[in-house]
Amino acid sequence: MFDYTKDYNENSNENTNVVKYWRKHPKSIEKYQFVHYFLPKEDKKKRADFLDNKAILVYCVLILAISLVFRFIPKFAPGVLGYASNITISDLLKYTNQKREENGVAPLKLNAKLSAAAEKKAQDMFKDGYWAHVAPDGTQPWDFILSEGYEYIYAGENLAKNFSNSKEVVEAWFKSPSHKSNLIGANYDEVGFAVVNGVMDGYETTLVVQMFGRPRQPSMLATVGSEGELFGENKASAEGIESEASRLGESTSSQQQENIVSETKENLGEEYPSFTQSNAEPVIDVTTATKSISLAFGIFVSILLALDIIYSRKRGIRKFTGLTLAHFMVLIMVIISIWLVFKPGLII
Amino acid sequence: MMDDIKENRVEYFILFVAILVFMFLVYRFRFNKEMLILLSGVGSALYVIWGVVHHLIRGKLTKNIAYEYILFGLLVFLLFFTVLSF
Fold first, then answer.
1. Minimal CA–CA distance to A53: which of B85, B71, B19, B57?
2. Of B19, B54, B86, the CB nearest to A290
3. ipTM, 2 decimals?
4. How far is B41 from chain A (nearest CA, A)?
5. CB B5 to CB A325 under 8 A?
């Protein structure tokens, strides 16, 4: 026959010994005391200390304080905070023309004068510290285009900043009706881009300027040569393209020229260098930093809420509080939204 | 947890639908920062109202519970705003 009494006594003795040991060496369990901050209080019918109203208020204040620090850093150390990006003109052109082709519109040709105008506009925005289509002194986008000697029938401008890659920029423009009308506008034949890094309002920023145009005289349309020159570092190749065009004779049709361009691009593949490109690398990337801070707080509170739900169920604790599961669901939604959806860039 | 859901079936259903709608709108306006900030503010405020009304209907609303929803609403808004304000 099994002796229950013996088993109980053995366990009891063992527990007594453990308790005796703890009493003798209180420091050995002191280090585990912090666990109580994370678990609900059975006796007080309350949530964990790290989840009560005061703690949530502290988290809110901490988040606000961190945001304020991020606002002040650029004033004392300009350029330390910024937006890391990897935007290239070749990709911007590729995605722009991809959108146009998807919408049954002819692709745009890169024009050196429009690109130079876009570059001037970007530099002007950094110099005068504004972010708008019209400069504070009243200078219009068209003034930059005309100053480059580009006479147009139609012209347009799209602006973007703080994006991390070319695809996001074009997607953002495409999602906005006014920018989309430029992006897939059938009135335009040519386009110019500038991707310029600089410090704006104390933040290391990447500005993207896209200028569209249809020249007054068809003869002004971008030639193979001028398009090649836009990929500056590849000047030798550009000359190659031009000479190839010359070799075909002056009667070379635009269709033939276009074929040469696309063929050359295919040959160079994804590697063909761009006129300007952005590889901004600030000391601290604001996008990553703010996302990480929000996610860290969100995940921390969610874990505490999950612990609260599991522990309370296990111990049968009923608390006089709000609905923990509802808080948990809302925080999970916040985490998913921040993680997957939020994009930092701005367009105008 | 299941008891909690069964007990508050209607409220949880409303909250679940609201979360789905909110996520759809966030996705829809993912490139429009101003709209996202507006959505975050409205979403947080609606959550506070949802919580307070729920406890009010059940006759369980106390000051502490009301503060709790206000603070959670504020936390949710600040988590969004920190990302969106830069």
1. B71
2. B86
3. 0.95
4. 13
5. yes
